[in-house]
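Fold sample X.
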Amino acid sequence: MEGIKNKPLAFCLNEPNPMIDIISKYLKEGANPTFRYQPDPLLHKDLAKIIIQQFESSAILRDTLPHLETLIVDHDYRLVAEYLAARKNHHSVALSLFGQMFSEKERSNPNKYRFEIAHSRFLDINSLHQKSNVIFTCNMDEIFSKNQERIIVWLQDDQYKDQLMTLIDVVGTKLGAFLEQQYDMPGLNAIVRQGIVRYWHLPNNIAVVSKRESSYKKGRFEKEQTNYKILLQKFGQQPLTLRDPENPKNKIVLQIAYPFAIIYDGYSDKRYALSLHIDATSLEEILLTEKDNAHRSSYLTHYRLLLDILYENGILWGDMSPRNILVDQREGVTTYTLLDFEKTHFLNQSASYNQRVEHCRGQICIEEMGVLCQYDEMLACFRGYFNPTEWDLTSNSLLPFVPRPDIFDILRGRGIEQINLGDYKTIDHSILAVRIPYNDPFTKSLVFPGHIGFKVEHYLSCAGYANAGDYDRKTTEILIAAKIHGCFEKVVRLLLFLANSVEIAYIKREFLDILSGGFSGNLAPPKQEIGNLINALDVFYQTRESGEAYRDLCARWLSDLQIGLGENGFF
């Protein structure tokens, strides 16, 4: 480091530079899980280089390094871009707030000043605002029935009333604008989310998550809030403590992340649900990274326990995805927090055996658990409810249940109007076979082909493609064809590369947009990466009937893009 400490940093990026490795390490270990979800080593280094380029010399960078570590490891790497933008633009208010955050005496309260920083950013963009008319209601229906220029708040917990009023007082009629300027909550297949779920802080710096009503899913937001009211009646506010079936010394705690407030902002005509942020790891991330079979089995046993408790209480939770289950592991206690109840059906009694089987034939098995668990794990977890080895693939019986949306889309894409139970199960078998994780024979790492379709639909939706869902269907058909034609792993390698390229471009663009203006706003789609992905999906879909042409096409694409073997499914 001594040899480069006084050089201009722009000339150090092509030399061995320990700063790149140091900042890359911060990013991989940071509070924001983006770089655990997207572990491409080049992404870490590229962002580290972008950060380094903002400093005039290595000496200044070295002095600032502890501040970068604080922002990345304790908060969010995107705050680094905001901080660097403030330095570049000599933003005295923002720099003063960051300086107070970096102060040693404030380290015991790491979230202090998060709201002030967000409010400073808000004032830069929304300098003028008027006092708003606020009504607190005891009737949640008013949130969904009134469309006037006022703010209507329904509170589940009155202890947050003062903090909400403080927030509304300082943002006035621009509450919606303030919430839309907060950072997205990253997810495994939706690292850049474009606005529905955001993470921020109240004026007392309590961390919260806001979920905005989606204009593309009419009625779902209201139904979810009604579902929370029913869950509250069934389970109450207090967590439920259970005995661990595998370890009597361990306790299992089940709790539901009820929103503490539902808000209608009549000035922006948007609705939001506010919940406390829970500092825990999703079961999705655990199943993605946990390699110890005994630990995986324990988590899946707990998942089955939670599933059966819901069944016993007459609850069919359609969104029982590992991403909606947060896990907090402490000595002797494992706490599971459940969230997202849009697709939930309530019964007047415990779910019958047939209802449980039908529920497991829905999205929770193949669509959700099937992309994270290997085949034997799924059979063990859903024993008695789900066993494809026992399916009768020759049955001519009519379908006794509503088809799963992904299967329905495939049937429609194939022009099939009527389908019997045997044909349905055959298609389901084919889908399961292309979504289950497998061990790459070269890297010895697990590859997750089921994530490709999720990423395709999400990022094409972010780019404004109205037919993003149809490309998810095409992705499944492409993988089924690749399985038939004997080039499955090569096609998976190609599509993962292209989908990850889109995601990486979005991550870089978000960081650069914040760096240039202190706020990312609506991200412009990365046209080249999205074009490459769509082109590949279209041509592979059109060629899927011919085995020889399909294999030749795959070989050409892999060669043209110079895609080789790599770790963690990234090439």
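Fold sample Y, listed below.
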Amino acid sequence: MNKRAVIYTRVSTDEQAEKGHSLPFQLEECRRYADRMGFQVVKEITDNVSGASLNRPGFAALEMMITNHEAEVVIAYTSDRLSRNYYDYVPLIGKWQDKNIELHFVDRGQSQNDLQGMISDGIFARLAHTERLRILDRTKNGRIKNKKAKDDKKPVMSGVVPYGYGRVGKARDAEMVIDPIEAEVVKMIFRWYTTNKDGGPLSLRGIANRLDEMGIKPRSAGFWGPSSVRLIVTNEIYAGRTYYSKTEILKDGRQVFRPKAEWIPIDVPHLALVNRKTYEIALAKTKRNKERAKRNRKHEYLLVGHFFCGSCNLAMYGFQKKKRSKPYYRCASYYHKVVKCGHTVRAIQIEKADQAVWNWLSSLLADKAVLIEGVRSMAQRREEELGPKREQYAYVLKMLDTNAEKIRRLIDELVDFSGNTVKAVIKEKINQMESEQNFLLEEKTRLEKELTELEISPEAESRITEIAALVRERLPVATFQGMRDLLELLNVNVIYYHTDQGVKLRVSCEIPGSEDDIVLTSSSRYLPGESCSSRSKKS
């Protein structure tokens, strides 16, 4: 019986343009290879994204087929079609080979599950990883070179052009220019934000509302919001300066932001729309408002980040209309200009909601045996979800032991041989294996960190039981932060509904069987230590 094979092809836009490795080309070559080898192709899977990560829809489908034993062979045009990240590739092929999955590449045939095959795959993986870093590096260096070769007044053209500007020219000849219509809008925004002219100064939201009322549309949405206005008043290009080299490429291929002190400033005075003083006033006001918002927060919002509207799925956020009025949680649709909420009442007093949820959670903590069992079940479920990472980690440990043993054998062989040529070959293999060992050690460290962050440790269990003990003894929880920590540890989720009977809060956490409905009526009283629900019904 012919072996069942899955063809996997992948290309990113840049690769297709640069090398011509189009998906149709790869598919045709893989089909010919399968036909030549006598395989039965049961599925053809494609991805049109970067190979820097395994988080791809097509690759996920491939993994699922392997898990379900729907194929014995995987065919790719080259090994870097599977991954360009060494740290993903090496454990991946080991995991598949442990499941007796054959890996075939059009350019070099079957990957062998032996010492020579492992060394060969490691070399090809490192080459693919290095090529990805070089591609990113060439892109960055090319832009720097272009910047130096051109007039300093022309900033490097990459990414999205800021509002107020346009692009002329293509590729290396591209240049940023002022868009006269949008530029006037930018000037109005700064004027409204920093002066008392034209009804100013206005808040970010006030500016967004005024722009909408005037029928002025932003580029990428149908309305303005405070965040889009903030992006303008804090962007230094409007004062004649932009920056280059904001990001750097890490060893694992990820691109991250550098500290601002390392950015390369590029002065572009011909693109300035406001003077430096106006920009600095706007920037200082934004920072001052941010700090003032923190200082003026009179109430601790226990459920922020855990509380959502059941109608529109937006967050419920804390607010207080007047200084002496009671604070509320309110649905974010109140200020949203697109999403419409189906609730007629979109707010609930913070005291009522916090008391209701905390009393519900306290009742879960009342029975120590049930709590411990629930926490352990929660930990077990998370551990099952971490199965793929644990599998990858186990393979890395196995490879470390295998490599160490092979290095020892090669060293023993080195002692037995007297010929210089043979010794040189053995030494080269030892160097390759040691390099492989270093990569695996780095991968081991990375996985250990990820597993530690995702697992529920014994210390976390102790924190839960410690707070639970305080509640059972009718002692107040020490701090607001302690309450927040418990919500985080148990992943508490609260959904708001407004019904004919009143407000219903659907509460749940990671403890199995914890989901509950709490119905609050206008006549309900909320006193410490008393039930906060007029009716509680298990779902």
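Sample Y note: The domain at 4-134 is CATH 3.40.50.1390 (Rossmann fold).
Also: The chain has a mean pLDDT of 75.
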